[in-house]
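Q: what sequence does this backbone want?
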């Protein structure tokens, strides 16, 4: 089964927010995790691990303003991909995730200068 949306509709803030709300619902109700992907194929360990970590993502969405949900989603995907750092120019998001938010991620959000400082000091 294939679904498509016009690019301008797909890229709209409302559609992105609805997508994040949907995946947060999975995170809040782990018993509803799908065991098969679209088309009925078996989910691999990475995919199952991603579904299992949605609970933490959903908890973070509750304490992060919805204007920052897209950044949070990218931080979560960076973590799932095994990245140590999440590079962003958004100082407000970095401060939120490193100083305020109690939900921690393995990928550390940093600004370019912050990454430079981390790498040059060690």
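A:
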């Amino acid at each position: 089964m294939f679904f498509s949306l016009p690019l301008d509709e797909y890229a709209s803030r409302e559609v992105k927010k609805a997508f994040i709300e949907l995946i947060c619902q999975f995170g809040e109700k782990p018993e509803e995790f799908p065991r098969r992907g679209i088309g009925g194929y078996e989910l691999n360990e990475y995919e199952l691990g991603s579904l299992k970590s949605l609970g933490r993502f959903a908890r973070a969405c509750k304490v992060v303003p919805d204007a920052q949900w897209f950044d949070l989603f990218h931080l979560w995907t960076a973590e799932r991909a095994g990245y140590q750092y999440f590079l962003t120019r958004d100082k407000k998001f970095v401060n939120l995730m490193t100083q305020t938010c109690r939900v921690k991620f393995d990928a550390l959000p940093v600004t370019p200068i912050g990454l430079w400082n981390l790498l040059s000091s060690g």
